[in-house]
Write a structure and sequence with these properties.
- By secondary structure, this protein is mainly α.
- It folds into four domains: about 1-190, Growth Hormone, Chain: A; about 195-245, no CATH class; about 255-455, MFS general substrate transporter like domains (Growth Hormone, Chain: A); about 455-500, no CATH class.
- It is about 75% helix and about 0% strand.
- The protein starts with a helix and ends in an 11-residue tail after the last helix.
- The relative contact order is 0.13.
- InterPro entries: MFS, MFS_dom, MFS_trans_sf.
- It comes from Kitasatospora paranensis.
- It is found in: Cell membrane.
């Protein structure tokens, strides 16, 4: 693949993944508007977000695996079409039920993340893979926060339905270009989708994420929450047993147990807890009237603008991350990103009386997110065989989401546990919450320190172990030389020359 084709492919991947990331946060500030327009309750309208979260959690690893099996480009186009249909249905939704169904359809496109990383690994020259993954991670990170900035102006000038009409237009064009110009990846895995494992994976993810996301309404001690959490544990155990015995596992658990993958996923869980909680609660903090003893009484648009420093710094950090890979390895970047996240949360806990203090903390946190997002993706891609890229990066994204759900749930308990007579939270709730998020980020940094340092030479026993971690040979046309295959599996970053097109 020549440089022009690389740029076009990257543009398609970045647009698709960016729009999906944007839709994660774009609708959140507009939920009160949607509730009023559709004459529904606050409890019901929250399912607009919950349905999206659950759908993405289920389909991200499953379609990542499907892409490894049947072709990443084909699966990418299918995910884009699902996103297009979901946005179209949402824009036309006559009631809240149809809108929730539309969000489920949109969530299918969560697979765009692992599929995009896999296509970059398969199609781009080895020297450009780290920078390309970092750039894509920066786009995803910025997209995830940009919705909070854009939602207010779009809803104010037009209507909340335009939050979906704009993506309809963009995704339609992106899907057509992807179908026409993105090449099909040469690396395939033999086998089939383990549907029993898929059902069990879906089951335990729903049983885990649903009570966490609804615990503030149902109560942590309620029968619903406890019952679903117990169900999640049982289904997780069954899923692990099925995967361990399967000849064609959906998620190869031996890959998940590789030291670099295990420690990176642990850091993702903890850092995700801090990141998503800050995204969820910082705008609300800014919108609180100063009569509550804190906050700035900002509008939705004003609160979004206060997040701009975070978006700018996370984009810059993500772009720079890949270019510094040779002198600033991914492990060091992940540690630095997590520490910066902890510093930002500490600033928010100690100094939040002025808008510039919050903006400063947001900028520091953006640097941390940019470095952490890019380095986590690069560490996973470097550490697994090419045929497992989709499933492994999909699970990393899921684990980050699970961490985010846990962090948001804990923050909700701290912020809303004790309310003023006006019904607003006390400042101490935010202070304690941001302090705990700083601890989350520090723990992520400690986990990142345990990520094994990549070595250029790999002992024979490790080579054999890495090779045995791959279930099923590649298709004949894509089979790499044995040495290159072992180097890739061991995380050295070596790639077969015939994969560079």
């Amino acid at each position: 693949m020549n440089r022009h084709s690389n740029r076009l492919t990257f543009g398609v991947l970045a647009t698709g993944a960016g729009v999906f990331a944007l839709l994660q946060s774009l609708i959140t500030p507009a939920l009160p508007t949607v509730q009023h327009a559709m004459h529904t309750s606050q409890a019901t309208v929250t399912w607009v977000m919950t349905a999206y979260l659950l759908s993405a959690s289920i389909f991200t690893p499953i379609l990542g695996r499907v892409g490894d099996l049947v072709g990443k480009k084909r699966t990418l186009v299918a995910a884009l079409i699902a996103l297009l249909v979901g946005c179209l249905v949402a824009a036309l939704a006559p009631n809240i039920t149809v809108l929730i169904v539309a969000r489920v359809l949109q969530g299918i496109a969560g697979a765009l993340f692992p599929l995009s990383f896999g296509i970059i690994r398969d199609e781009f020259p080895a020297s450009r893979v780290p920078a390309s993954i970092s750039n894509l991670s920066a786009v995803i990170a910025v997209g995830s926060g940009l919705g909070m900035v854009l939602a207010g102006p779009i809803v104010g000038a037009l209507d909340y339905r335009w939050l979906f009409w704009f993506p309809v237009i963009i995704v339609a064009v992106t899907a057509l270009i992807a179908h026409r110009y993105v090449p099909e990846s040469p690396t395939r895995t033999e086998g089939s989708v383990n549907w029993l494992a898929s059902v069990l994976l879906s089951g335990w993810l729903v049983a885990l994420l649903l009570p966490i996301s609804q615990a503030s309404k149902w109560g942590w001690g309620s029968t619903k929450v406890i019952g679903l959490l117990v169900t999640a544990v049982v289904l997780f155990a069954l899923w692990g047993a099925v995967e361990a015995r399967s000849r064609n596992p959906l998620i190869d658990l031996r890959i998940m147990r590789l030291p670099a993958v295990r420690t990176t996923n642990t850091a993702a869980l903890l850092f995700g807890g801090g990141m998503y909680a800050v995204w969820a609660f910082l705008p609300g903090f800014a919108q609180t009237p100063s009569s509550a003893g804190y906050g700035f009484g900002a509008s939705v648009t004003g609160a979004g603008l206060l997040m701009l420093p975070m978006l700018v710094t996370m984009f810059v950090a993500g772009i720079v991350s890949g270019r510094l890979a040779g002198r600033f390895p991914a492990k060091a970047q992940l540690i630095t990103g997590a520490v910066l996240g902890a510093v930002a949360c500490a600033i928010l806990a100690a100094w939040h009386g002025q808008q510039w203090q919050v903006a400063l903390a947001a900028g520091v946190f953006g640097l941390g997110i940019g470095l952490a997002f890019a380095s986590m993706s690069n560490l996973i891609v470097q550490s697994v065989p090419a045929a497992q890229t989709g499933a492994a990066t999909g699970m990393n994204a899921n684990i980050r989401t699970i961490g985010g759900s846990l962090g948001a749930a804990v923050m909700t308990g701290l912020v809303t546990g004790h309310l003023q007579a006006s019904g607003r939270p006390y400042a101490s709730g935010y202070t304690h919450g941001f302090t705990l998020l700083a601890v989350f980020c520090l723990a992520a940094a400690l986990a990142a320190m345990l990520v094994p340092t990549r070595r250029r030479s790999v002992p024979a026993p490790v080579e054999a172990a890495a090779a045995s971690a791959v279930r099923g040979p590649a298709t004949p046309a894509a089979a790499p030389a044995p040495a290159a295959a072992v180097a890739t599996a061991a995380g050295t970053g070596a790639r077969p020359e015939n994969a560079r097109r």
